[in-house]
Amino acid sequence: MEKKTGLVLLAAASSRGKGNGHHLPPIEDELALDLCVRRIQAAGITEMVVVVGHDESSPVSMPKDLPVSTVTVSPTRKDGQENGSVRAGIAALPAGITGIVIAALDQPFVLSPTYALLANVHLYRPDRILMPTYHGRDGFPVLFPVSLFGPDSTPDPPERLLSTHRDRVVRLGVEDPGILNNMDYANEYSPMAQ
Fold it and tell me: What is the average per-residue pLDDT within 136-154?
């Protein structure tokens, strides 16, 4: 079976000041979502699902020219990286995916080579959880074999999978501080050295 990587980008805003997750303040004149998608596609990952949050007050409005496979709305009212958002994203990926990268809009500075490394190593280690590290510190995004999510509709959250399957985690050293830069507040989205 051919190995193929898909990606779920969690773009639901938190209640901590981000506002609408896909309309974060620009980073060097580029929206965080556009920056993430551009870097992911430059890595050669074309099967991508963006999960946006539920917002009763306004409909979800994604940029029309955003080149993503699918856009879905998180079924949960609480935003962030809950299992519901991950489930929704996984369900929207096409059949035939063997590895799923779970990424977050909160980390828009992850470099394309990091995404490419995860996808490339998956070709040779399809049964492993692949986690990037920077100077010995674990980072995000993480690639999971699709088999770990199981056939049911309630897969374990990524954190539990990492804990339960420690023996399957392969750490990959990268020169990418973006894997550690988690932007929790809107004022943290400012131009920075890439």
Answer: 85
pTM > 0.85: no
- Identity (one letter) of the amino acid at 112? S
Q: Nearest 5°: CA angle at 174, between 180 and 10?
A: 45
Phi, psi (degrees; rounded to nearest 5) at 173: -70, 130
Whether residue 67 is preceded by a cis peptide bond, meaning omega within 30 degrees of 0, is no
**pLDDT at 161 (0 to 100):** 87
SS3 content of the chain, % helix, strand, coil (to 5): 30, 20, 50
- Give 146-194 pLDDT, tens digit per residue: 988 866 656 677 888 898 899 999 999 999 999 998 875 555 554 443 4
Where exactly are the structural domains of the chain? 5-182
> Where do runs of H (alpha helix) occur along 72-167?
83-92, 112-124, 158-164
The SS3 assignment for 50 reads strand
The pLDDT of residue 184 is 59
CATH class held by domain 5-182: alpha beta
Radius of gyration of the chain from Cα atoms?
A: 16
